[in-house]
Design a protein that fits this description.
Layout (H helix, E strand, L loop, with lengths): L1 E6 L20 H7 L5 E7 L20 E4 L2 E4 L25 E5 L22 H7 L4 E7 L1 H14 L3 E10 L6 H11 L3 E3 L1 H5 L2
Parallel strand pairs: 1-2, 1-6, 2-5, 6-7, 7-8
Antiparallel strand pairs: 3-4
Helix pairs in contact: 3-4
The structure holds pyrazine-2-carboxylic acid (VGL) and zinc ion (ZN).
């Protein structure tokens, strides 16, 4: 079975939000159109406590987009975003919120960030999504959402590593793009054997 993964389509990642992805909201109609073409639909939700270790505001003298070393490796510091139970953490109002079968929350532990839908940033602590997909008989994953260079990339790389046939839907993702990070992310994903398609390819089937 094929599953559609919708990554972090939340207000804080859309224009006007705390960590806006340029054009982040423009992909939502495309995602909505893809939904009826899948039998398994999973959404992720970035869901941070206020004291989260990825927030620059929790460090003296640090600014958003600085990087620091945490015990699991390099971490980019972000503006406060997707704080649990705030408007910024809500799914965008135009996203079809009725269709998804499963919502995976991530980044809810203060001391560790989680970009991937499968593992936290230590690349060891599982979110449980792999078990869910395997139990439902999913073998193939189509990835959409935000942001191409962070949560989409890490979700796609982990999906491929876990053995799913993994495809990114190019016109249903948008990136933050810090110093060419979108281009680098696409290259890394291609090198990992991840496929790329366009929504039209799926809709016309
Ligand atoms: C994301 C940075 C911080 C993402 C989440 O959804 O790509 N990026 N938290
Ligand atoms: Zn986050």
């Amino acid at each position: 079975m094929k599953a559609l993964l919708i990554v972090d389509v939340q207000y804080d990642f859309c224009p006007g939000g705390a960590l806006p992805v340029p054009n982040g909201d423009t992909i939502i109609p495309t995602i909505n159109a893809l939904i009826p073409h899948f039998d398994c639909i999973v959404q992720t939700q970035d869901w941070h406590p206020k004291n989260h270790s990825s927030f620059a505001s929790n460090y003296e003298g640090k600014s958003p987009y600085d990087t620091i070393k945490l015990n699991y490796g390099e971490q980019v510091l972000w503006p406060d975003h997707c704080v649990q139970s705030t408007h910024g953490a809500d799914f965008h109002r135009i996203l079809n919120k009725i269709a998804p079968h499963m919502i995976v929350r991530k980044g809810f532990r203060a001391d560790i960030d989680s970009y991937s839908a499968f593992f936290e940033n230590d690349h060891e602590t599982a979110t449980g999504l792999d078990g869910y997909l395997k139990e439902r008989g999913v073998e193939e994953l189509f990835i959409t959402g935000l942001a191409t260079d962070f949560c989409v990339k890490w979700s796609a790389l982990d999906a491929a590593k876990l053995g799913y046939k993994t495809t990114v839907v190019s016109d249903a993702v948008e990136g933050i793009d810090m110093d060419g990070s979108v281009g680098k992310a696409i290259k890394e994903m291609k090198e990992a054997g991840i496929h790329f398609t366009n929504s039209k390819e799926i809709l016309n089937k």
